[in-house]
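Exercise 7b. Backbone tokens:
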């Protein structure tokens, strides 16, 4: 079982890397040939500022590290890896939920969207990370306080995004601001920053609920496994 999940983790990690590289190549070609951008430095920074890209890159790290741990270690995962895995599972599931509920069908400011890449990053990756958390061997019980570690990165990401947004020009659309997602853009949100604050609070709640659910799963399954067999 450990070998099977190790192989599956490497396969999914490879698919995610291929999806990111494919979308990046598509975006570079779009910026050069359609938008006429000769120096895509800002666009590259923007590309890697998407929460989807960052969470999928973290997923690659966790999947590769997790494959190695499954092959060289027996028993429960190291605590540091368990917390990191909890974070990434939460981010990936949140990415899938938010995209498919709020963003599917909306063209994002990354250039032309590569459809197969889009599905891997927003559907295949999140679904696998959830299944991996539920079914893969090695998961250890985590403290409820781990949820605070999960929340830290999205809070910092949202703060940086809102600070950076009005200071970053969008050469593709000819605007003097850039935001990775429409719901974070106060210039197009129905009530400006009030709408942005509402969506941030909503997504923070989703992240918290998913993280709490993942911790609950981690604490429940091992307890059943440790129960003594009836006489």
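Sequence design result:
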């Amino acid at each position: 079982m450990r070998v099977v999940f190790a192989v599956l983790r490497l396969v999914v990690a490879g698919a995610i890397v291929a999806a990111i590289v494919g979308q990046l190549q598509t975006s570079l070609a779009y910026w050069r040939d359609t938008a006429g951008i000769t120096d895509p430095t800002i666009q590259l920074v923007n590309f890697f500022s998407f929460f989807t890209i960052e969470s999928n890159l973290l997923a690659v790290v966790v999947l590769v590290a997790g494959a190695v741990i499954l092959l060289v270690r027996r028993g429960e995962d190291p605590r540091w890896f368990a917390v990191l895995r909890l974070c990434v599972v939460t981010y990936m599931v949140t990415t899938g939920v938010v995209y498919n509920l709020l963003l599917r069908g909306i063209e994002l400011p990354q250039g032309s969207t590569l459809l197969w890449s889009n599905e891997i990053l927003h559907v295949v990756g999140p679904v696998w990370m959830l299944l991996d958390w539920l079914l893969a061997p090695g998961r250890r019980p985590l403290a409820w306080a781990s949820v605070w570690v999960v929340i830290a990165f999205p809070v910092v990401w949202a703060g940086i995004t809102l600070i950076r947004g009005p200071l970053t020009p969008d050469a593709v659309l000819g605007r003097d601001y850039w935001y990775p997602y429409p719901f974070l853009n106060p210039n197009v949100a129905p009530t400006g920053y009030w709408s942005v604050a509402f969506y941030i609070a909503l997504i923070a709640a989703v992240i918290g609920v998913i993280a709490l659910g993942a911790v609950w799963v981690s604490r429940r399954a091992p307890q059943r496994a440790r129960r003594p067999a009836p006489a």
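Instructor comment: The radius of gyration is 19 Å. Residues 2-226 form one domain.
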